[in-house]
């Protein structure tokens, strides 16, 4: 038998995280990543993961929610995430709510652009997956501002319900031609 350690996000580009994973590999734990991009990163770092176990959304729920969609308000944008993700590890606004999304909304308002915005922040309020999917489906655009991701499930869910996506270059976004990709260091003006 073999124990596996799942590498579920791209926080591995932090040197201390990569060192911890080196220790795991020396303890005869098999490393498994959730994306090909992470697999390549770990292989290039000399860790040689044994495979990829893709993270994926609830396809049945996507189908149900797609059937419920009647219309989307024009100029409706949504942010989905956990604004306190990584706080214990010293990350500050790793998901970009305060540094990218909210300033983007302020800029739009200054330019006279009226946007209907929704924020689903699991750090402040837990929301069922069905409600998240419904709100994604009723939005014209998901703005995904994260500094690092494994998969980035809100991206897959938004695409699944027909919502457009603008995202920083994280997780698996390069695998979708319909996602507008910005650099990880994108400013609020870029969105």
In terms of topology, how is this protein built?
Elements: E1 4-7, H1 15-26, E2 30-33, H2 36-44, E3 51-52, H3 59-68, E4 76-81, H4 97-110, E5 116-121, H5 129-137, E6 141-144, H6 153-160, E7 164-168, E8 180-182
Parallel strand pairs: 1-2, 2-3, 4-5, 4-6, 6-7, 7-8
Q: How would you characterize this protein structure?
A:
With 191 residues, the protein is α/β, with parallel strands linked by helices. The chain is built from 6 helices and 8 strands; from the N terminus they run βαβαβαβαβαβαββ. It has a 5-stranded parallel beta sheet, with helices on both faces. It has a 3-stranded parallel beta sheet with strand order 1-2-3. The longest helix is centred in the middle third of the chain and has 14 residues. 33% of the residues are buried. The mean pLDDT is 88.
List the main descriptive attributes of the protein structure presented here:
three-stranded parallel sheet; five-stranded parallel sheet; 8 strands; alpha/beta
